[in-house]
Amino acid sequence: MKQGQVKNQLKLSEILYEIKINGSINFLKDLFRDPEIKEIVAHTSRRSKCKRSVLCDILEQYVISEYVFDESGYCEERFLNSVRKILGQRVRS
């Protein structure tokens, strides 16, 4: 890869599609590399003093078990808000 070249990164919607619709949990690595997700996990970790690995486990469980991906009604901001809410709630409980 040449200097200044950016690696082709999947969009959050594409990652969630692969995880939820195609059942490919290998894309969880890509989910945790997403800049928005990284920021949410880092912020929640600082605020709650909870380890990032614990937050990633919570997020993984949420995405695999509970989150419903709807192609026609997908909204990235709504997904990110739900991630913030879930992480905040589960860390406190």
Describe the structure.
The chain has one domain (12-92). The model is unreliable at 1-6 (pLDDT under 50). With 93 residues, the chain is mostly helical. The longest helix has 17 residues, at 76-92. The chain is built from five helices and no strands. It is globular, with a radius of gyration of 14 Å.
The main β sheet shows up as:
none
Order of helices and strands: HHHHH
| Domain unit count | 1
Which residues form runs of ≥5 with pLDDT under 50?
A: 1-6
Question: Could you give a quick summary of the protein structure above?
Answer:
The protein has 93 residues and is mainly alpha-helical.
Task: Explain the layout of strands and helices.
Elements: H1 12-20, H2 28-33, H3 35-48, H4 52-66, H5 76-92
Helix pairs in contact: 3-5, 4-5
Please describe the structure with a list of short key phrases separated by commas or semicolons:
single chain; mainly alpha; globular; disordered N terminus; 93 residues; 5 helices
